[in-house]
Specification:
binds pyridoxal-5'-phosphate, seven-stranded mixed sheet, 2 domains, alpha/beta, 14 helices, S-adenosyl-L-methionine, Aspartate Aminotransferase, domain 2, 16 strands, pyridoxal phosphate
Amino acid sequence: MQTKDILEFDRTHIWHPYTSMIDPLPVYPVERAEGVRLHLADGRVLVDGMSSWWAAIHGYSHPVLVDALARQAQTMSHVMFGGITHRPAVELASRLVRMTPAPLERVFFSDSGSVAVEVAIKMAFQYWLSKGERRRTKLLTVRGGYHGDTFETMSVCDPENGMHGMFSGVLPQHLFAPVPSPAFGDAWNDAHFEAFETLLRANEGDIAAVILEPVVQGAGGMRFYSPEYLRRVRGLCDETGILLIADEIATGFGRTGTLFACEHAGIAPDIMCVGKALTGGMMTLAATLATAEVAEGISRGELSVLMHGPTFMANPLACAVACASIDLLESSPWRERVSAIETQLREELAPCADADTVADVRALGAIGVVETVRPVNMAAMQRFFVERGVWVRPFGRLVYIMPPFVTEPDDLSLLTHAVRDAARDPR
Ligand code: PLP
């Protein structure tokens, strides 16, 4: 197929994420992705600032991951996980149990972040059902969150400013405290937590779990909030027995400067979800980890089994790549790299703050955000970035970069300078 035919068929027949079929945004055909570069069909090369939606932490086609995939493909590409186990799944689970906060020790594999969160919520509901507490059907969360696109995960996304507001009539109704500002590391303000505590106390007997993205709210607004907030949430959960679910899909594996964002607050959740960078962005895989208390609570119930079992659960190819990605991360100087990226993002994005088109500039780990005063024109922005030789995909009022950890300073500068110019003239 010629590139023009590919584009034509794509435009007429294929849905892209969050995209109209009548007036679609521009779509760029990519032929090859290698290191931190995307190679377009027309020969242009773009420095990637998105890590494929925050997943490709080692860059693309890393030889170690390619090799792990090829070796596993020669042995066993997939087998059902019901009644069968295999080395890649066990080796990956043992790595996850070792590297995540201590009490998390039971692992459920699934194939996407949304399903991992769905499973976490199901675990929480089943835990309480097993105890005979049938009233606990509510989840408590905060505004500004994003947890996925399936129905229960949509029900804990921001109901007003999030992507799924239109479904509110058909979604389960849960409890929302205000956005947990202030910004990361800033002076703590009790008032931000009071509303959360009041809501929890007023509904204590109905709440199964609190669900939060630790310290960084991603697709709901790219906001950073104080770890102290998370510490206090943990304290309230300890006091009341309500479970704490940490959604580390976006933040896990070093993105915020610690291996998991919960570490900023020094807390461990009862249930934790990981995905995205779990396989270095190469394969689709996610996992939900739980404490023995949660897992055994579920198993002591009337039904005793956790009622979930995807066809591609613990896919060996994905598990083998995830093991290789974790080993690669752990043997690399990723902390130094992420810290250097944070410093450069702070320095090079800071000048945007002077523009009257810009509301805020912030950076944490390998995340740099410029929030504009008005929503940006996505199509125009996308064209601008491609012309500048970078891949950045803004949304709403957010122009942000989450580059691979292996991005060299010169390439990062290309990205930050393009973002600076875009934010000053947001089209
Ligand atoms: N949770 C968080 C915090 C996310 O950022 C995302 C995706 O961006 C998800 C869940 C959903 O993951 P997936 O897109 O793999 O279903």
